[in-house]
Amino acid sequence: MRKRRDRLSELPQSLIHHILSFLPMRDVVSTTVLSKRWNKLWTTVPCLNFCFDLKSSKLVNGADSVRNFVNRALMLWRGTKILKFKIVIRNVFDLSLAGDFDLWVRFAVEYKVEDLSIELRYDSYILEWEDDPVMEDVYSTPQCLNSCSSIKKLSLAGCNLRIDGSPTWYQLTSFEFDGFWFSESLANQILTGSPRLEVFDLSFMECFENLNIRSTSLKKLKIKKYIYSEEEYPTDISHTLLSICCPNLETLEMWGVLYGKYYLSNFSSLTDAILGYYGPHFYDDTPWLLGEKLCQILPAIQHVENLTFSSVCCVQELVVSLRTNLPSPFPNVKFLKLHFDEIELDDMINLLGIFPSLKMLVIEDETTSGSSPEFNIKKFLEFEINVSNSFLRQLKTIHITSRFSDSSIFQVIALLLKHASMLEKLVVWAEWHKRGPPAFPFKVANVLLNIPRSSLTAMVIINPK
């Protein structure tokens, strides 16, 4: 009987290493049973991916199991360079591992790591802080990381970054931070020590400090501030300032709670903007605050081509401002994404009217309750409006996600189909309630398919979600 060829083992080592780079180290180490060649192959993989769930039944001894596995794997590793080093601890991070983490990071630095990722998740109890244990009760990276001149991508989640002086991250192009404590001085240190930085992704707990971002290399900037409770947010945020000056910035994302003032300048290269401010909804003056801040933000991003309002609050406040003061149009916006809740038809007309070059519109209808929707097509078409000749004339694609819990979304769709004369496709993602009437999806589909269209070639596609 002819012996079957081991085609997998015949693959080039570089290709096998590439395949193994997608697997966690527990699975990589398990490949030793495949053949004699594979017995040592894992010890030279350039991508080390450690992933643990400390609540998993597979980890009998919890932190000790993690410590023993990682230490033994690194002791047996015989590679010459680490391209990627990733360690993830889910559900609970045992602070007794902090010293081991320092050693593992030092190991990666010594082997010229290019991509380092640390992701830690804590139980909720650690967030019930007293005094100020943000720096003490959370893992902080070791100082050796700051002198890692080989690193190109750094991603930190659930931990804090300690820097004394400026780091020597001369090759760093991407920095992602999803942690607790972040300050203006820390941002300045990172930007000073990273002359090639292109991606700056920050998500951190509100610490009521200013933030000043100045860089000629940045192409993508994301800033998200969050809070844990109502008590943490002061009634006066006027003293906080977000200042950004990045002439080569192409994408800007701003999420979370507000700064007191915004100073945005030199955005000549900006093409994409995403605003996801929600503010502290438990204060009565939040809408007014958000409206005031939008007046400071929108003029700086008026020339973008792709614009997203990723929070209902943003759209609501923009709509309110349009009722009294029409802003200058956004002449270059070709892609627009909106999240809204029960928007009035007149408000939608005013909103879409400031985007004369719009080609693709994405709507996330977050209406969750309301009067039972009516299915009278004639009623949806009973509206008289005065619009300019350019209103929706370039719109070609529409995507809408809705629960159809209110009739207003049908009126919006009727408006779009009536005036988008160049429309090619309307795609509706319908989120049906599992316990709703069985005939409800068919009634919705019947209405959507029978609304008149000004574009003779427009397709209406309905998908369940």
Which helices and strands appear, and what pairs or packs with what?
Elements: H1 13-20, H2 25-30, H3 38-41, E1 47-53, H4 63-76, E2 84-90, H5 98-110, E3 115-120, E4 153-157, E5 174-178, H6 184-193, E6 199-205, E7 211-214, E8 220-226, E9 241-245, E10 251-256, E11 261-265, E12 272-277, H7 286-297, E13 306-309, H8 312-324, E14 335-340, H9 345-352, E15 360-365, H10 377-380, E16 397-402, H11 408-419, E17 425-430, H12 440-450, E18 459-464
Parallel strand pairs: 1-2, 2-3, 3-4, 4-5, 5-6, 6-8, 7-9, 8-10, 9-11, 10-12, 12-13, 13-14, 14-15, 15-16, 16-17, 17-18
Can you characterise this structure?
This protein has 465 residues and is of the alpha/beta class. It contains 12 helices and 18 strands. The strands form 2 sheets. A 15-stranded parallel sheet has the order 1-2-3-4-5-6-8-10-12-13-14-15-16-17-18. Helix 4 links the parallel strand 1 (47-53) and strand 2. Helix 8 crosses helix 9 (345-352). The protein is globular and about 75 Å long. Residues 124-135 have low confidence and may be disordered.
